[in-house]
Design brief:
The complex is a heterodimer of chains A (about 325) and B (about 325). Chain A is α/β, with parallel strands linked by helices. Chain A is built from 13 helices and 13 strands. In chain A, strands 8, 9, 10, 11, 12 and 13 form a 6-stranded mixed β-sheet that branches. In chain A, strands 3-6-7 form a 3-stranded parallel β-sheet. In chain A, helix 5 packs antiparallel against helix 6 and helix 6 packs parallel to helix 13. Chain A is globular. Chain B starts with a helix and ends with a helix. Chain B has about 325 residues and is mainly α. The longest helix of chain B has about 35 residues. The chains are: A alpha/beta (about 325), B mainly alpha (about 325). The interface between A and B is medium-sized, with 33 and 34 residues.
């Protein structure tokens, strides 16, 4: 008796499943694109392959997508200072979908995107964005920078059918890192600081700007505690005491387009810093803050590598 | 007897200052200080300016709080509660937008002018409304401050200066103080001395408008004088080091609990305790996450909130005296 019932249930459900399949197949012939499953920072999402209307919130991902030549429909433009090489996304050719932290949901709903790439500063908006369209977050893990950036680039290649281009760029990028690393690893210690409003904070390995220690082989000039996105507060005396061989400086005010504020150069121009090795040997490197601070994808790091390669070449 | 305590207080302040001079990243030792040029430079370029800045800013903000309390005849007022600090921030933002590369002295002047306007507005509002309870005064101040800082935050957002403004104002942080970056604070020190010199007039003004006029005080002039002192002190301190929360509130109250209300006698104590408290907070901030720093204002906020709560809880007992 029981067996008979089980068979009935099984065959019935099988029939329904087949029926369901049939229906799906029917609609697929109309328009439905193929799907691919992407594992990302905020979960696993099924996204269409080669989506047409793509919204990108995270400038770091935008940076890499631009490098791969992917077509983008909309980006946040409200109070966003794109670095020079991404400046074209500030034009009206692209739909403005709000700010980096706060999407404009009305604009998004009107747009009816096929895919939203969020993450980074738009992390908290993930749930709401997911209701509008499949949303993924391809942020890069600073603790495992190269592998993570490689994976994210490959994933973009898969979604947009640009695998060959992605592989090519990754290979070039890795070669460049290897070349710079070969020159940098005997260059001694380094320290990365951010200057904002006349005050300094330092970053350590594995942090937001830890790439220089982690991947290029500069030794950290001192042990730095793990910190939030804005680093550890330090002063001029700290720099003199740590006395690194290289000092890499990010100027937050210039990163956000506030070029006239008390600049990092002015802050560092003081009698204590004049005593440091980096000041005397002219080994203070002002990084392209606007790219590193706002973006931070493939092109940013390519340019960073070029800059470091150049300053190392001058030595 | 009183003067013995004052010497004790000065002694404690000297000890704290010495600790501050010898607390930092590089090791300084007294024995080799004068023979080692490196050490001497660190002491003179970094440690001495920082310690002086702490003392000057701490004592000045406490004195500004005390004068404000006398002029409003209310114990729960200080520049950051009466819209003064917020107006100074607005002034600073205006300079950052219109003339970002202006020298410190211009920033300070504009910030002080705005602080003055904000404080005057607060005083005018106080004169217009009928106060049924002493707590209404700080409430009015907090509301006015809220409105002004809302304008500031909106404008800062509009011009994309929110984080830069935050770094300037919320700092209350002495990590950037070295030789050449704090000298404006000497002006604040001068104003504090000036306040001590005319202290009696503030005491009389603190007894109320009618009384002051009856004993022949030019009430309007004294009010204006007091307001200018408060505004300039707040303007300079916010431009050089950032806001120091609670200081102007708790220090005068603590001192008056022990010493009474004759400000000619209490002013030196207010300077002493204010300077010492900020010094202590900064030393703690430098030590607990060594070799990194925690802003003095953060530590001050923790202590200040606790002391303020104690004062509020004891208020009924204290008000009866």
């Amino acid at each position: 008796m029981l067996k008979k019932a089980a068979v009935t249930v099984l065959s019935l459900s099988l029939a329904f499943t087949l029926f369901g399949c049939d229906k799906q197949k029917l609609s697929a012939t109309e328009a439905s694109p193929q799907m691919i499953t992407i594992a990302h920072v905020q979960g696993t999402t099924s996204v269409p392959i080669n989506p047409q209307k793509v919204v990108v919130f995270n400038p770091a991902t935008l940076d890499t997508m631009d490098a791969l030549g992917i077509k983008i429909a909309a980006v946040p433009q409200t109070s966003v200072h794109f670095p020079a090489f991404l400046q074209k996304y500030a034009e009206s050719d692209y739909v403005n979908v709000g700010g980096l932290f706060e999407p404009n949901y009305e604009a998004l709903s009107n747009l009816k995107p096929d895919l939203i790439i969020a993450g980074g500063r738009a992390n908290d908006a993930y749930d709401k964005l997911s209701e509008i369209a499949p949303t993924i977050s391809l942020a890069v893990d600073n603790h495992d920078f190269i592998d993570s950036l490689t994976l994210r680039t490959e994933q973009l290649g898969e979604i947009f059918d640009k695998q060959a281009e992605a592989e090519k760029q990754i290979t070039q990028f890795k070669q460049k890192i290897a070349a710079v690393k070969a020159r940098a690893s005997d260059q001694g210690t380094a320290l990365i600081i951010l200057i904002n409003g006349g005050k300094m904070s330092a970053y350590g390995p594995g942090s937001r700007f830890g790439f220089i220690y982690d991947e290029l082989g500069f030794k950290p000039a001192t042990k730095l505690a793990e910190s939030g996105t804005h680093g550890n507060i330090v002063n001029a005396e700290f720099l003199l005491n740590v006395n690194p061989d290289w000092l890499f400086v990010l100027d937050r005010d210039s990163a956000i387009g506030n070029n006239q504020a008390l600049s990092a150069k002015q802050v560092l121009d003081n009698p204590l810093i004049h005593k440091t090795k980096v000041w005397q040997d002219n080994k203070i490197v002002y990084l392209d803050s606007s790219a590193l601070y706002i973006a931070g994808g493939l092109q940013t790091y390519n340019q960073l590598l070029d800059q470091i390669n150049q300053v190392l070449g001058q030595q | 007897m009183r003067s013995a305590y004052l010497y004790l207080g000065i002694g404690i302040l000297i000890v704290l200052s010495t600790i501050s001079l010898f607390t930092g990243i590089s090791h300084l030792s007294l024995a080799t200080l004068w023979s080692d040029e490196e050490m001497r430079d660190i002491l003179l370029i970094s440690r001495v300016p920082r310690t002086l800045a702490l003392l000057l800013a701490g004592s000045a903000m406490s004195v500004a709080g005390l004068i404000m309390q006398l002029l409003t005849q209310n114990r729960f007022v200080e520049p950051s509660i009466a819209g003064t600090t917020q107006s100074a921030s607005l002034g600073l933002l205006v300079v950052m937008v219109l003339a970002p590369s202006a020298p410190m002295i211009v920033k300070m002047l504009i910030a002080s002018l705005f602080a003055m306007a904000g404080t005057l507005l607060f005083m005018l509002i106080l004169r217009k409304i009928v106060l049924k309870s002493a707590l209404m005064v700080p409430l009015v101040g907090i509301m006015l401050g809220g409105v002004i800082s809302a304008i500031t935050v909106f404008a800062a957002m509009y011009y994309d200066l929110l984080q830069s403004l935050g770094a300037w104002i919320n700092g209350g942080d002495f990590s950037g103080v070295i030789q050449g970056r704090y000298e404006l604070l000497w002006l604040v020190g001068g104003l504090t001395l000036f306040a001590c010199w005319v202290a009696d007039r503030f005491t009389v003004a603190g007894l109320g408008r009618e009384f002051a006029i009856n004993v022949g005080l030019n009430y309007r002039q004294v009010m204006l004088l007091g307001l200018s002192v408060i505004a300039i002190i707040s303007g300079i301190v916010i431009v050089v080091v950032g806001a120091l929360p609670f200081l102007g509130l708790i220090v005068p109250n603590l001192v008056s609990l022990v010493m009474g209300d004759n400000i000619r006698k209490t002013l030196p104590w207010v300077c002493l305790v204010g300077g010492g408290l900020v010094l202590l907070c900064d030393i703690i901030g430098r030590i607990i996450r060594y070799p990194f720093e925690i802003p003095a204002s953060t530590i001050l906020g923790v202590f200040g909130a606790m002391i303020f709560l104690c004062l509020l809880i004891n208020q009924s007992r204290y008000a009866k005296h």
